[in-house]
Amino acid sequence: ARAASGSTFAGWSGACTGTASTCKVTMDAAKEVTATFTPPRYTLTVSRTGTGSGTVTSDPAGISCGSDCSEPYTSGTVVTLTATAASGSTFAGWSGACTGTASTCTVTMSAAKTVTATFAPPRYTLTVSKAGTGSGTVTSSPAGISCGTDCSESYTSSTAVTLTARAASGSTFAGWSGACTGTASTCKVSMSAAKAVAATFNRSMSSSYPTEAALLTTLVPGAYTAIVRGAGTTAGNALVEVFDQD
Description:
Layout: E1 8-14, E2 33-38, E3 41-49, E4 54-59, E5 64-65, E6 70-74, E7 78-85, E8 90-96, E9 104-108, E10 113-120, E11 123-131, E12 136-141, E13 146-147, E14 152-156, E15 160-167, E16 171-178, E17 186-190, E18 195-203
Parallel strand pairs: 3-10, 11-18
Antiparallel strand pairs: 1-2, 3-6, 4-5, 4-7, 7-9, 8-10, 11-14, 12-13, 12-15, 15-17, 16-18
């Protein structure tokens, strides 16, 4: 038996058996032999990469990777691969004979093919807000937040994000709340879940003249803390008075 181009010889039946290309028949009676030819079969191989984990299965069945990551399929077979991320991981996308980030992809078996599924740790969003009567900005390291204008960013699980608060002229940084606490200008957040941080900036008053006796400002209704400091290392006395304007 000789298969034509694009086909394979699958074997004999009837008066011949086996898959060898030749068989012998002793003619001691009328006999029948059937030679079966099939389309070629090509192997689909799946691999997994990334710092996360998960499995890839196939339809038609044959691949469960996990443990069984390759399977031969008849030429022309359309194989659907499905990626399922394990708990604590996310599916990041396909490469090779599949592309994209959808959990499923299809491969038409016209030759031996390879597909790679990438699994990654989950990503969580860090959201920054600003409060208080003053103004300022909050930036992050690794980069992503510049609040200001961009006040949220997603980070890979376990990423340690350092936030830095900078008060604008005429304001002071009063402290953090939410996933950060304290009054230091920087704080660190470990991204084990979606988290929110608020930075409070308050208006400040200072005199351009060391002999100036009084400062006057009008505040919107709210709660305030008055902190009085001498310029440089100087000391003295100060009086803070609050008037309710009708």
